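REVIEWER CHECKLIST
Item 1: Sequence provided? yes
Item 2: Single chain? yes
Item 3: Sequence as submitted:
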Amino acid sequence: MEYEYLLYRSEEHIAWITLNRPEKLNALNRPLWKELQKALQEADSDDEISVIVLTGSGRGFCAGDDIGELTRLQNPSDAKDLFLNCIYGLVDIIFRLQKPLISAVNGLAYGGGCELVLLTDIAVATEDARFAQPEARIGAWPPIFAVFGPPIVGMKATQELLLTAEPISSQRALEIGLINRVVPQDKLTETTVKIARNLKKSSPASLRIIKETVNQALGRHLYDFWIASQRFSHEVARTKDFSEGTKAFIEKRTPFFQGH
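Item 4: Structure as written out by the authors:
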């Protein structure tokens, strides 16, 4: 399958999915959200693939949602497509994957990029990687991390990331359980491949059952996430703070929030 905004290749029974909008730090627009769904499904249904790796091209893993995309969310159909078809659709697919999903984080992982890392089975990051959920700074709200952050990294770490909107280091991300390993930049691919090879030694049936069992607890939150996604598309995306925050970001100025 041909993709416009990501690269897909397989080697040694490993599927490499690379977010490929380097000029935008791999920011997630709606076509990329949908292509990522298809790429994950392609890898998961391929009998020749044992492990899936998600990474980013250029200087970063993923800068989060494309702010230009967010400015169009005043339109109800655009908001519904992004939050229900794109974002909820991808989360649902990730929880249904039968094969291990590894994230190889090069550089920053902000917003939706940080949320993607949260949902992967194993995450490896470079020493200079940074993680943040800066949505509050533009009057937005991170639905994936708000719902799935507490059961994965804990309430306090989730609140710290979401309320302060401050970036954390890869070492701090390791401490709270957001990632599994921190490696030098030049060891990222090597370490990721080593982990993938170790996973390939295990029974595919065992890995599938383990993933299903571990994900059962998180899967119970999918309904909560569906409700949260609907709320965002109907409420938050239409607040004055959201409109002001996204506009200020594009204009490179400090936003003036009014609290509604």
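Item 5: Key structural point noted by reviewer: Residues 13 and 168 are 33 Å apart (CA to CA).
Item 6: Recommendation: ____
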